[in-house]
Amino acid sequence: MSVLRNTLDETKFSRTAALPYELRIEDFKLAMQDVYDFFHDVNVGLVSKGLDRLDDTLRPAIMSGVLSDMLTASLAKHSRTLIVNAYFNGHPDLVVRGRYPDNAVKAGEHGVEIKTTRKAGGAVDTHGARNQWMCVFVYTVDNESEPANSRRPLTFSEVYLGEVRVEDFRKNARGELGTRTATLHAEGIAKLRKNWIYKSQ
User: Mind listing the pLDDT tens digit for each residue in 83-99?
Assistant: First the structure.
């Protein structure tokens, strides 16, 4: 079974996106390619031992968590002013270096929250409505093509980065065992999509 290496189409990046905190389009290119290279390298090792690709092993929720952590770390590495929030489960994921004591804050407004989803268009649940810069990476995983050695590698299809406010969210009904969440409403998601970073279509 061969493992395909994914690469970015640099013609699909926006030339007009508004980028806060000294971010550059190049930072996003490098972070996304870091993810592609990681999955390729890991999958080469797994397949050489007769094991399934990481893409075929991780459940969707786990995959989204892994990608969010990887993209957060990689953007922090390439960014000029942002660093990973040192507060465990703090918000946002990336904070402005030196803005908070020890670069750690439980709930701050100065930085960028990173989300990943398989939902085209970038609609994603959050743990609560906040004033924030929110970055959403939309990705696809091919778990169905047969034979398995013809499966496409994990691919980013859309990236959005928007400044959203509390009033841009709708609260989702909570089930008996569920956690309260919030999602951008129609006007809010339109605001997010207006400032797109990458679209492969």
Answer: 999 999 999 999 999 99
